[in-house]
Design a protein that fits this description.
By secondary structure, this protein is of the alpha+beta class. The protein is globular and about 40 Å long. The protein contains one helix and three strands; from the N terminus they run E-E-E-H.
């Protein structure tokens, strides 16, 4: 994943490149996350699952406030 911090380590959730609109789909065994900014649209299923779990954790925290 192209980020300012280099490659994501296995113990860290890979971030979306920018906070902007995005579209999610599947493509040849990868998860396609098109973002209005950024140049890496394809994530492995594991990377996409990590991103989704991080989003859900924040949603759960927000609902608890």
């Amino acid at each position: 994943m192209a980020t300012d911090e280099g490659e994501a380590s296995e113990d860290r959730v890979p971030p979306l490149e920018h906070r902007a609109w995005f579209d999610i789909g599947a493509e040849d065994g990868y998860v396609r996350i098109d973002q209005s900014w950024g140049d890496k649209p394809l994530y492995t299923p594991e990377e996409a699952r990590d991103i989704a779990e991080e989003i859900l954790a924040v949603v759960d925290a927000a609902e608890g406030d």
